[in-house]
TrEMBL record, chain A:
Keywords: Kinase, Phosphoprotein, Transferase
InterPro entries linked: CheY-like_superfamily, HATPase_C_sf, HATPase_dom, His_kinase_dom, HisK_dim/P_dom, HisK_dim/P_sf, Sig_transdc_His_kin-like_C, Sig_transdc_resp-reg_receiver
Keyword Protein biosynthesis: no
Highest taxon listed in the record's lineage: Bacteria
Protein name as it appears in the record: histidine kinase
GO cellular component terms, A-Z: plasma membrane
Modified residues (4-aspartylphosphate): D440
UniProtKB/TrEMBL annotation, chain B:
The protein, known as: ABC transporter substrate-binding protein
Pfam families: Peripla_BP_6 (PF13458)
Gene3D superfamilies named in the record: 3.40.50.2300
Keyword entries, A-Z: Amino-acid transport, Signal, Transport
Organism annotation: Methylopila capsulata
Keyword hit for Transport: yes
Family: Belongs to the leucine-binding protein family.
Length: 516, 424
């Protein structure tokens, strides 16, 4: 009885142990020394869709697992099966990716009595974190590397516009002719904007190295890009007495405008750098649905053995190193990487001593989708009927003069404002040739009618003119009209002003209708 | 409530007399058809709509402003919905902004942008339901470049001659063409020269143009009769070039006067009836209502503007009489927010301009812009051929009969083409 009680008690305790093991966080399989399964817990059944029943042999279990397609095996199923069977009782640990997406760490441990316990532990979350950490580490390393590349490339690429700027500043200081100076200042402005764009592009290249750049493909006219390149390089070519010619292409291309500009500016910069006599021509050839853009120079050429390597990072030909030419040898490497990104074939043909042709082939685009630079922000200042029309405005009230000037400028008018007659005459003497005079009537010393007369004399022509007045007295208005001048009463309505100005400038026969 | 109190009065300022009376008659028909259709479906939230027409005659500032005041003060209109009026230069915006009502027109003027953007609060209700005249410029330059680059036409040079009429509309278009030309490989060889219009005498300016031997002549004057004389005088001694005539050459009057000389002329409009199912059904309804001699492509403008306004007012919970700024602001908000596919393409108001955006010049998505349509007169007795843009075109460009050695409509591919283009 007591023995029976003890046996029952032992059974209860064993059942309690099994029940406890059933809810352990791991799947557990216990094999006897006869390689038969003694115990499998509930957790295993719930997490792994593998056949495991008490009494089955270890070999049968391994075989079933090898062919279950439930998990990825590190080698061929037969080989894996052989290894696993041979390793019964041997301590080992391996991770398996299951079809459910879970990663299981499977641990084998031999028991004192010649059997073996196998545990299945879900390590999915841990593995995910590890992967994320690894990716973050790689990204950080790539960013670091990109930063270094960026600094090298910045040094290289900013030299081109900087060199232009230096030449321009030097020439500008000595330039006596106002017109030439203003041309140079304009070119300096362009050089600075190119540097700005370059910095932007270089930042992109940093991202390119980190694999983060997405080209923005648009359709546009190549001629716009050629114009920018011409301005960027004209002065450098002139310095070396080289001809630089852009053959204006027709047609629309579809690519990333900024990245293509980077490719071409590297080609042109190289062509100028390595050409001593002759010139550089940039032109295009149509090839089916693509356009091949060629930069042709009469420089020293590239030796056949160097033709592949010129596109490598930091590569410089031997004589170039000897001559300590500027540049770090990054330009063509940047070209290569950009061209790969854009999927544009890049080619080099060359003859030593005769010159080289670097080319990039880009797809043709849809002309209807072509961006014409000015379209996004249209206003009357860009395209109105009065664009560029010179007008002399005489108004002694500072605030009114300022407001009126702003209004007229918004319509694209070239406003020359004066506070009184003598100032207006000085403007004329200084070279302003107005197409229209707008004068206030109640000026401090003279009437607007007198001022118009004076300014017209200074110009030497009966330039169209109009009067604005705050004095709506019929006698005053009659007097102005009697002098043959149309008049508007303040506050001036912009549409009325516009109609009157239009008529005076373009349809004088209508002035009588609208000037009243 | 008496039925008369329920009526929603909508004004329409239309040149019923004067030089644009032909267009005015169509704008009136478009309004009538739209209002009849709307009222047949219950009007504006159950209230019948009543159109009130004001004659703008020669469309001067005085006449148009007078019409706006009359509609607002005498008829208390909730909105003014038009076709176009040239001449007032936005001076009609003032009484409309003072009254706080909605104004929808197709004036096709760049200065609309300037006025609205100068004070968006004040001009909240002013909408231009077609693209500004400016867009004709880049649109035209792209069109001739497309003919060239797609091999449909091989120009004899890159020279472009531009003649402008003396109205702001013509000058703006001519300037915009000139501004876009170089980017697309065209060289301005003549103009833009402003000719005092109206005129029927073009021989002097044609002689000047002839001396420059252009590949393209564009005339941005837009009176049908004047342009017909231009084309007849051009035909007396034609040049080997494309002839583009602004808008007016779409009119029956143009072909009536120019006859055979009209064949080959290119003309465009930033607003015009499409030839798809919706367009054809509209045209059939329009002709059934007003007779076969009617011009649905003009009438569709006021028709669509009225429909769009009515839908927006319904969305806003109703329209507002003069002085009800609050309600009309809601209507304006709905007009701005709702993309509306009319029978002549999409009305989508630019958020700042309160003007329609053209396709394909500004937006590349035909569902977001109103098509700038290019036509060619291929048979002067038949409707114009719609040759661009895709996906709306129904015909293809053919060589004008006056072009040297290219008298046939379909030309074989030239044997040696230096540009590698394929002739059609």
């Amino acid at each position: 009885m007591a023995e029976a009680d003890r046996a029952a008690d032992a059974d209860d305790r064993l059942a309690a142990i099994w029940a406890g093991l059933d809810v352990a966080p791991n799947g557990i399989l216990v094999w006897g020394d006869d390689r038969r399964l003694l115990y499998v817990n509930d957790r295993f059944r719930k997490t792994c869709d593998l056949p495991a029943s008490v009494g089955m042999t270890y070999d049968a279990f391994v075989s079933a697992m090898a062919r279950s397609h439930e998990c990825f095996l590190p080698c061929e199923p037969d080989e894996w099966e052989r290894e696993e069977i041979a390793d019964f009782g041997v301590e080992k640990q391996r991770d398996y990716l299951f079809a459910t997406g879970a990663v299981m760490q499977v641990t084998h441990a031999g028991s004192r009595v010649g059997g073996m316990t196998v545990t299945f532990t879900d390590v999915t979350a841990i593995k995910r974190n590890e992967t994320a950490l690894q990716l973050a580490k790689e990204a950080a390393e790539a960013t670091d590397e990109a930063k270094s590349r960026f600094l090298r490339a910045a040094n290289h690429d900013l030299r081109q516009p900087l060199a232009s700027l230096k030449i321009l500043i030097y020439n500008c200081i000595r330039e006596p002719v106002e017109e030439h100076r203003s041309d140079m200042l304009h070119a300096m402005g362009v050089a600075v904007s190119i540097m700005e764009d370059l910095l932007g592009a270089l930042l992109q290249i940093g991202q390119l190295d980190a694999g983060r750049i997405q080209p923005r493909i648009t359709s546009f006219q190549l001629s716009q890009l050629f114009e920018r390149l011409d301005i960027q390089f004209r002065h450098q070519a002139e310095e070396k007495a080289l001809r630089l010619k852009f053959v204006a292409p027709r047609g629309t291309i579809a690519t990333d405008r900024a990245l293509l500009e980077r490719i071409l500016s590297n080609f042109v910069a190289n062509a100028i750098r390595f050409t001593e006599v002759g010139g550089v021509v940039v032109g295009c050839r149509r090839e089916g649905k693509s356009l091949r853009i060629e930069v042709v120079d009469t420089g020293r050429g590239v030796r056949p053995q160097d033709r592949e390597r010129v596109f490598d990072e930091f590569y410089r030909a031997t004589e170039e190193r000897r001559m300590q030419k500027n540049g770090l040898g990054l330009g063509l490497n940047i070209v290569k990487r950009l061209a790969e990104l854009l999927e544009h074939p890049v080619r080099l043909r060359s003859e030593v001593g005769r010159g080289s042709i670097f080319s990039v082939t880009v797809p043709l685009g849809n002309i209807w989708h072509s961006e014409a630079g000015r379209e996004v922000e249209i206003s009357e200042a860009v395209a109105g009927e009065f664009v560029g029309t010179p007008v002399i405005l005489v108004e002694d009230d500072d605030i009114l003069r300022e407001t009126m000037t702003q209004l007229l400028r918004r319509w694209g008018i070239d406003v020359h404002a004066a506070a009184d007659e003598s100032e207006a005459i000085r403007l004329v003497e200084g070279g302003v040739v107005p197409q229209l005079i707008v004068a206030d009537y109640n000026l401090k010393t003279r009437t607007g009618v007198d001022v118009v007369e004076g300014v017209r004399q200074a110009i030497g022509a009966a330039t169209p003119a109009m009067i604005v007045t705050a004095d709506a007295e019929p006698r005053v208005l009659e007097g102005i009209r009697a002098a043959g001048l149309p008049v508007l009463v303040k506050p001036v309505s912009p549409p009325r002003l516009r109609v009157l100005m239009h008529n005076l400038l373009f349809e004088p026969s209508l002035t009588k209708l609208s000037g009243r | 409530m008496a039925a008369s109190q329920d009526v929603v009065p909508i004004g329409s300022m239309i040149p019923l007399t004067g030089p644009s009376a032909a267009d005015g008659a169509e704008f009136r028909k478009g309004m009538i058809l739209a209002v009849e259709e709307l009222n047949a479906r219950g009007g504006l939230l159950g209230r019948p709509i009543r159109p009130i027409f004001a004659d703008t005659c020669r469309q001067t500032a005085e006449e148009v402003v007078g019409a706006a005041r009359w509609l607002i003060e005498k008829h208390q209109v909730h909105a003014i919905v038009n076709g176009y009026n040239i001449g007032p230069q936005n001076s009609e915006y003032e009484p409309i902004a003072d009254a706080g009502i909605i104004y929808v027109h197709a004036n096709t003027l760049l200065q609309h942008h300037d006025t609205v953007m100068s004070d968006p609060e004040r001009y909240f209700g002013c909408f231009m339901a077609d693209p500004a005249d400016y867009w004709y410029g880049p649109g035209f330059i792209k069109f001739i470049s497309w003919l060239r680059d797609s091999g449909q036409w091989t120009p004899n040079s890159d020279r472009l001659a531009i003649i402008s009429g003396s109205k702001p509309y013509s000058i703006v278009i001519a300037n915009a063409m000139a501004a876009a030309a170089a980017d697309f490989g065209w060289r301005l060889c003549f103009g833009p020269k402003i000719v005092q219009t109206p005129t029927s005498q073009w021989r002097d300016v044609l002689d000047e143009v002839r001396a420059t031997n252009p590949a393209v002549i564009a005339n941005t004057h837009f009176y049908a009769g004047d342009l017909a004389h231009f084309q007849r005088q051009f035909s007396e001694k034609p040049m080997d070039c494309i002839v583009y005539l602004q808008y007016g050459a779409m009119h029956r009057t143009f072909t009536d006067i120019a006859q055979e000389a009209a064949v080959g002329v290119i003309v465009s409009s930033v607003i015009g009836l499409l030839r798809d199912d919706m367009g054809k059904r509209f045209e059939a309804r329009y002709n059934a209502r007003f007779g076969e001699g009617s011009t649905a492509t003009i009438g569709c403008q006021s028709y669509s503007n009225m429909h769009h306004y009515a839908v927006a007012a319904a969305m806003a919970g109703g329209s507002g009489p003069p002085g009800d700024f609050e309600q009309n602001r809601k209507v304006a908000f709905a007009l701005k927010g709702m993309i509306y596919r009319s029978v002549h393409g999409t009305i989508r108001y630019h958020p700042d301009w309160q003007a329609v955006v053209p396709y394909p010049v500004v937006t590349h998505d035909p569902s977001l812009g109103m098509p700038h349509i290019f036509y060619q007169i291929q048979d002067f007795r038949k409707p114009l051929s719609m040759i661009a843009p895709e996906p709306y075109n129904t015909e293809r460009f053919v060589y004008p009969p006056w072009m040297s050695g290219r008298g046939t409509a379909v030309r074989p591919a030239p044997p040696a083409n230096s540009r590698g283009l394929t002739g059609l």
